[in-house]
Design a protein that fits this description.
The chain is of the alpha+beta class. Helices cover 28% and strands 25% of the residues. The chain has three domains: 106 residues, Rossmann fold, CATH 3.40.50.20; 99 residues, 2-Layer Sandwich (D-amino Acid Aminotransferase, Chain A, domain 1); 59 residues, Dna Ligase, domain 1, CATH 3.30.1490. A hairpin with a 2-residue loop joins β9 and β10. α1 crosses α8. The longest helix has 14 residues. The two termini are 29 Å apart.
């Protein structure tokens, strides 16, 4: 079989290890979305969408239109990049997601009513090196707005917790977990500590699976904080995260790719409009 990797970083540990598992019997091809505008036929049996840039999403949409399976889909990946849309989707599904409101820009937020208390401010559009900060008062807000005045943001009320994020990842049928000190912690993130998924609080594995169903994701991460007594609060959802250092993750991704490649191809969708823009 042929497996395509849509990524600008084929040396990423998860992708590199997965490719090493597949190449003895299958052909693995890398597509750099910054360099490839359109893939000539015949298409690969499945594509893994690791990149989340606009060119990568455009490439994935074109492949889907032509009937190729893409993991995760372009639509699901794009949804997880918009934290406003993410919160709305989670709310409609009844998921325990942090209450979220949006502001057009940080400067606009700073010009509005005083903060009701400690809040967490995040870039509305999830990306590398985006904004995540705890604000305790209006002075904090004004200082942040001076540095990021035009940044569209979401605002979440700060929920008291242990100071540790539970990083939960699903790769096909496999679930992985780790503990990482919150990036809002004064001590900084520190190392990622392994966590046995079997030792998660009751109901948490099922919650992660429910997130996958609601957002139509096959490879994804769910960031959860424990607000007391094992009560989970979802603070973020990521499409195709790195899942670094998790034993068995490359094997799970390889199995998922082959499973999706084995399914009957989807019929090509009609192309709408003119040529695809960049």
């Amino acid at each position: 079989m042929r497996i395509g990797l849509i990524t600008a970083d084929p040396g990423h540990p998860l992708l590199a290890a997965t490719a090493a598992l597949l190449t003895p019997e299958h052909r693995v091809e890398r597509l750099d979305p910054a360099a490839v505008d359109e893939v000539p036929g015949p298409l690969a049996d499945v594509y893994l969408l690791k990149s989340r840039t606009p060119p990568a999403l455009a490439l994935a949409r074109d492949l889907e239109r032509r009937g190729a399976p893409v993991v995760n889909s372009a639509a699901a990946t794009a949804l997880c990049q918009d934290r406003t849309a993410m919160a709305e989707q989670a709310g409609r599904a009844g998921l325990p997601f942090a209450a979220t409101r949006s502001a057009t820009t940080l400067a606009h937020l700073a010009s509005g009513p005083p903060l009701p208390g400690p809040v967490v401010v995040k870039s509305r559009h999830s990306r590398r090196h985006d904004l995540v900060a705890r604000l305790d008062d209006d002075l904090d807000l004004r200082e942040l707005a001076a540095a990021w005045p035009r940044e569209p943001v979401v605002v979440q009320e700060f929920a008291p917790n242990s100071g540790w994020d539970h990083k939960l990842w699903a790769v096909g049928e496999r679930l992985f977990a780790a503990l990482r000190r919150s990036e809002l912690s004064p001590e900084g993130r520190g190392p990622t500590l392994p966590l046995d998924p079997d030792h998660l609080p009751p109901g948490w594995p099922a919650l992660v699976r429910r997130v996958g169903e609601v957002f139509e994701l096959d490879v994804y991460g769910v960031d959860i904080i424990d607000t007391g007594g094992g009560t989970p609060l979802i603070v973020d959802i990521n499409a195709f995260p790195g899942v670094r250092g998790q034993s068995g993750a490359p094997e799970a991704l390889a199995a998922l790719a082959l499973d999706r490649a084995d399914r009957p191809p989807a019929p090509p969708r009609p192309r709408r409009g003119g040529p695809r823009g960049r």
